[in-house]
Design a protein that fits this description.
300 residues; two-stranded antiparallel ribbon; Rossmann fold; 13 helices; alpha/beta
């Protein structure tokens, strides 16, 4: 028997795998979406969303993509999986994602193809949008210059392409590699860790989506989970998932403090509790959280 069956759940409530059903529309994620949609609908060109490790940037990017109906937007999401990406790869991939058939191998013909495709999209009354996740991987000046060039594809009074970066705070350093591009950022939003109150709502939300008909965590454990996780959604998920498994193994009806402390110890969090302040992390906090997540991924 899995813990989902034991607790009467129809799916795992705290998986870190992307799942639109579990999207939690927190106040800051809602505000971020409103601002990013404003940037796109106003043809601002470039918008940037910045957040620490595990704060929900990828979740937000996927949510935004889902909120761009095909009859109004020609959109795509590109994930930068490593720092060895080249300007030619970026240009070709964006052209293909926006519907350029048989992209030319040479740069100038490809740019012409992309420009003509963007004109077609505009003529159809749609907006072209490219979302770039893990944008901190764009670590060369040549890449930043490439994006600046793409933003120059326009007609009088209107930009033909809107780009949204989602990345770690290091994306600011990437932008500074090309100052003219940095000056073109029209909208910038910073995602913070969750407050204690929002963490409680977040845990309840995920349990409800998974089919829970009651709260499976004792009231006094939520602040402790929040403290160990530093309000970071990904780390909250990891702790809660392990806690439910441990509670199942111990045949408990709910997660208690002893279980939370035990799980924190197993995950290596007891000696490094993160600040419980929620909406204002320091760089030191972010470094600790990133280190924790790296250790957890290695264990998994």
């Amino acid at each position: 028997m899995a813990y989902t069956e034991y607790f009467g759940l129809n799916r795992e409530p705290f998986s870190n795998a992307p799942d639109a059903r579990f999207y939690f529309n927190s106040e800051q994620h809602s505000q971020a979406l409103v601002r990013l949609m404003y940037a796109i609908d106003s043809n601002k060109g470039l918008a940037v969303t910045i957040g620490g490790v595990g704060t929900g940037k990828t979740t937000l990017a996927r949510r935004m993509l889902d909120n761009l109906p095909e009859d109004r937007y020609e959109s795509s999401l590109l994930v930068m999986v490593h720092s060895g990406i080249t300007p030619d790869w970026i240009l070709t991939r964006i052209a293909m994602q926006l519907g350029v058939e048989s992209p030319a191998e040479d740069r100038l013909p490809l740019l012409k193809q992309l420009y003509e495709r963007l004109l077609e999209i505009d003529k159809a009354g749609k907006k072209a949008v490219v979302l770039i996740d893990e944008a901190q991987m764009l670590q060369t000046r040549e890449l930043m210059e490439e994006f600046r060039g793409l933003l120059n594809l326009e007609i009088p009074g209107k930009k033909l392409l809107n780009i949204v970066f989602f990345g770690l705070p290091e994306v600011e350093d990437c932008l500074r590699l090309d100052e003219p591009l940095a000056q073109r950022v029209a909208v910038k939003y910073h995602l913070q860790s969750l407050s204690l109150a929002t963490t409680k709502s977040y845990i309840k939300h995920r349990l409800q989506v998974a089919g829970a008909n009651r709260m499976l965590f004792a009231p006094d454990v939520i602040p402790v989970i929040h403290r160990y996780a530093g309000g970071v959604p990904r780390l909250i998920n990891t702790i809660c998932d392990n806690c439910l498994f441990e509670a199942f193994m111990r045949k408990l009806t709910e997660v208690d403090l002893k279980t939370v402390h035990s799980v924190a110890g197993d995950l290596g969090l007891l000696n490094q509790p993160v600040s419980s302040g929620g909406q204002g992390e320091t760089h030191g906090d972010l470094d600790e959280i990133e280190s924790m997540l790296d250790r957890l991924e290695q264990q998994i």
